[in-house]
Amino acid sequence: MPEAIRPLQELFAPMAERSTALMRQYSVDELALIADFVEKGTALALERARQLEGD
After folding, report:
1. Count of domains forming the chain
2. Which residue range is the domain that position 28 belongs to?
3. For the chain, what is the radius of gyration of the CA atoms?
4. What is the pTM of this model?
């Protein structure tokens, strides 16, 4: 690993570990459902933001 990346890895390692622990609480199917919901919800929010910008 390049030495310049090491500080970033150290900074984000705790979050990555906690995220992994969180994801392990769900099945693959549940994670797929969550991902689908987040993607669709994000698309709705972006669509509305664009509409508001046009108003």
Report:
1. 1
2. 3-54
3. 17
4. 0.70
